[in-house]
TrEMBL record:
Family: Belongs to the Gfo/Idh/MocA family.
TM regions (residue ranges): none
Keyword Oxidoreductase among record annotations: yes
Limits of the GFO/IDH/MocA-like oxidoreductase domain: 134-253
Keywords: Oxidoreductase
InterPro entries, sorted: Gfo/Idh/MocA-like_OxRdtase_N (IPR000683), Gfo/Idh/MocA_domain (IPR050984), GFO_IDH_MocA-like_dom (IPR055170), NAD(P)-bd_dom_sf (IPR036291)
Highest taxon in the source lineage: Bacteria
Domain Gfo/Idh/MocA-like oxidoreductase N-terminal, first and last residues per copy: 7-124
Protein name, UniProt field: Gfo/Idh/MocA family oxidoreductase
Gene3D superfamilies: Dihydrodipicolinate Reductase, domain 2 (3.30.360.10), NAD(P)-binding Rossmann-like Domain (3.40.50.720)
PANTHER family: OXIDOREDUCTASES, TRANS-1,2-DIHYDROBENZENE-1,2-DIOL DEHYDROGENASE
Length: 333
C-alpha cells in the first residue's frame, strides 16, 4: 500500500524556494507541494502558476490555516524565522526552516521549545548533509583511510555586493556572510568531528556600503583533541565552495562541498602522495532532504539531525559574530 505523500506549504517566494527547494520537493518520492504564500497575492498566484502548485495565498496566516498542509518550508529573511516557525508550530505544521535557524541561540531555543510543545518536527535546511558522499567520507575517516584528523579547512564565498537592496545586506534582517554562508563550514566541521567546539576567533570586513554587515569573515574554530576548523566566508569575493579534511596519513578534498556543481560529482582522497578520485552519484540534495523529513513524519521517527543540532550550530555562529565585532577570542566551554 502506497503511503500518502506529505503535503507542503511554502511561506514565501524567495529565490532559494523557487529555484531549489520547491523543485527538490517535487522531485522527491514522499512529498508534494500543495500551497505557496506571499505577502502579496499576485506574487503567490504567479509563483503557483509557474511552479504548478494548486493553491496560492496572499498571507502566511492563510496558508497556516489550511488544514490540508502538514509541513511548511520557511525561506523568509533570517529575522522572521523565529516568528513564523512558532506560528507554524502553533498551527500544527511540521517545519523545515532555512538556515540559519535563528539570529542567536536564545531564539533557536524558543523555536525548539515551541515545536516540542506542539508535537511537530523542526529541522534546519542544511541540504548538503543528505548527500550520500558525506556518510561515505565519514566511513572512510572512521576506517582509518587518512589517519587521525589534524585539521579542517573550508571556504564558501560568492560576489553579489552590487545588489545593495539584497536582504543579506540589511542588519536588522540578520544579514551578513557568517549567517548566510559561514554556517556551512561550521556545520560541516561539527558533523565530521561529531563534537562541539571549545572556542572561536573571527576577523571580518564590516562594510559601510552594506549596512555594516560582515561581507567577508575568516575564522578559527577550536575543537577538542587539538583539531581546528579554519574557514572563510564572504559575499564580496570570488566564488568558492570547498572543503578539505587533513589527516595524519592523508587528506580528503571536496571541490564542490555544499552546492553540488554540474560535473563535480566527486571528491579526492590523497594518501602517501597518491591521489584517487571517488565518484559519487548525481543526486538532488533538496529532494533527499525532503524525503528524509517526510519519512520522519510518516513513521514518527527521530530526525537524523534533530533541532538541537541547529541550536548547537547557532551557538557557534553567534560566538563567531561576537568575536568579529569585539575582535576577541570567545570561549564556548
Amino acid at each position: 500500500m502506497q503511503t500518502q505523500k506529505v503535503k507542503w506549504g511554502i511561506l514565501g517566494c524567495a529565490n532559494i524556494a523557487i529555484n531549489a527547494v520547491i523543485p527538490g520537493i517535487k522531485q522527491s518520492s514522499l512529498n508534494e507541494v500543495n500551497a505557496i504564500a506571499s505577502r502579496g497575492k499576485d506574487k503567490a498566484v504567479k509563483a503557483a502558476k509557474d511552479m504548478n502548485i494548486p493553491k496560492a495565498y496572499g498571507s502566511y496566516e492563510a496558508l497556516l490555516s489550511d488544514p490540508d498542509i502538514e509541513a511548511v518550508y520557511i525561506p523568509l529573511p533570517n529575522h522572521l524565522h523565529k516568528e513564523w516557525t512558532i506560528k507554524a508550530a502553533q498551527a500544527g505544521k511540521h517545519v523545515l526552516c532555512e538556515k540559519p535557524l535563528a539570529l542567536n541561540e536564545q531564539e533557536a531555543s524558543e523555536m525548539i521549545k515551541a515545536c516540542e510543545k506542539a508535537g511537530v518536527k523542526l529541522a534546519e535546511a542544511f541540504m548538503y548533509r543528505y548527500h550520500p558522499r558525506y556518510e561515505q567520507m565519514k566511513a572512510m575517516i572512521k576506517g582509518g583511510e587518512i589517519g587521525e584528523i589534524r585539521a579542517i579547512h573550508s571556504a564558501f564565498t560568492f560576489n553579489n555586493a552590487d545588489d545593495l537592496n539584497n536582504v543579506r545586506y540589511k542588519q536588522y534582517m540578520g544579514g551578513g556572510s557568517l549567517y548566510d554562508v559561514g554556517v556551512y563550514p561550521i556545520s560541516a566541521a561539527r558533523f565530521i568531528l561529531e563534537c562541539e567546539p571549545e572556542a572561536v576567533t573571527t576577523h571580518a570586513l564590516f562594510s559601510s556600503e552594506h549596512d555594516h554587515v560582515d561581507m567577508m569573515a575568516s575564522g578559527l574554530v577550536e575543537f577538542p583533541n587539538h583539531v581546528s576548523l579554519t574557514f572563510d566566508c564572504g559575499m564580496w569575493a570570488e566564488f568558492r565552495n570547498s572543503l578539505e579534511i587533513v589527516g595524519s596519513d592523508g587528506k580528503i578534498e571536496v571541490p564542490s562541498a555544499y552546492i553540488t556543481m554540474k560535473g563535480m560529482n566527486y571528491f579526492t582522497v590523497t594518501k602517501n602522495g597518491l591521489s584517487r578520485m571517488i565518484e559519487v552519484p548525481e543526486v538532488n540534495q533538496y529532494a533527499l532532504q525532503a524525503d528524509h523529513f517526510a519519512k520522519s513524519i510518516q513513521q514518527n521517527e527521530p530526525l537524523t539531525f534533530p533541532s538541537q543540532d541547529a541550536y548547537c550550530n547557532m551557538r557557534v555562529v553567534t560566538a563567531c559574530i561576537e568575536s568579529a565585532k569585539g575582535r576577541k577570542r570567545i570561549e564556548l566551554i
